[in-house]
Amino acid sequence: MKEREFTVMAGTQEERNQVISKIREIVSNEKFKLDAYYFCGFPSGTPNEKLLKACERYLETLDRSEEPDRGVTDEMLAELENTLARKSKAADNLVNNDADIQAVLDHRELLIQG
Q1: How many Cβ atoms sit within 10 Å of the Cβ of residue 24?
Q2: Domain segments of the chain: what residues?
Q3: Residue 8 has what pLDDT?
Q4: What confidence score (pLDDT) does residue 114 get?
Q5: pTM listed for this prediction
Q6: What pLDDT was estimated at residue 32?
Q7: Are 29 and 37 in contact (CB under 8 A)?
Q8: Residues of 95-109 as b/e, b for ≥16 C-beta within 10 angstroms?
Q9: Residue 44's pLDDT is what?
Q10: How far apart, in whole angstroms, are the C-alpha atoms of residue 8 and residue 55?
Q11: In 3-state terms, what secondary structure has residue 104?
Q12: Residue 44 φ then ψ, to 5°
């Protein structure tokens, strides 16, 4: 019985790591959009600095400890929801985070449970 519990736990940790990698990808994309927008006017879509900061704050707390503060997690999830609700209106947006954002929101329980 203990071995089965460990397997389930390992699967959950792997899934959680996948969700965290999506958050890292969102940060990377937002940094790219920020650089492209300010340095060369590249049509990458308007950067979402609130989303970038919320995700970075979550990752920073995760790097410092095993579990980020619940308030930081809730703030990030709220900003992810706000971002999806606004939807990018740029037809030429080359960097679109919608799929990654939706994947994180679909598995939010992995971030809340730890």
Answers
A1: 13
A2: 2-113
A3: 41
A4: 52
A5: 0.75
A6: 86
A7: no
A8: bebeebbebbbeebe
A9: 56
A10: 27
A11: helix
A12: -105, 5
Give Cα 111 distance to the centre of its chain: 10
Integer Cα distance of 33 and 107 in angstroms = 25
58's CB contacts (< 8 A; 6+ apart) are 23, 68, 72, 73, 75, 76
Site of tokens 């308030």: 71
Note the pLDDT of residue 42.
59
> Following DSSP, what letter does each residue of 7-58 receive, concatenated?
HHHHHHHHHHHHHHHHHHHHHHHHHHHHHHHHHT--SS----HHHHHHHHHH
Cα 94 to Cα 56: distance, rounded to the nearest angstrom:
22
Q: How many residues does this entry show for the chain?
A: 114
User: Could you give the angle at the alpha carbon of 11 between the alpha carbons of 7 and 14, nearest 5°?
Assistant: 140
* pLDDT digit string (tens) for the chain, length 114 residues: 334 333 344 558 899 999 999 999 999 999 888 887 777 765 556 778 999 999 999 999 988 886 778 999 999 999 999 998 886 555 445 567 889 999 999 999 998 865
What is the identity of the amino acid at 65?
S
How distant is the alpha carbon of residue 31 from its chain centre?
13
C-alpha gyration radius of the chain: 16
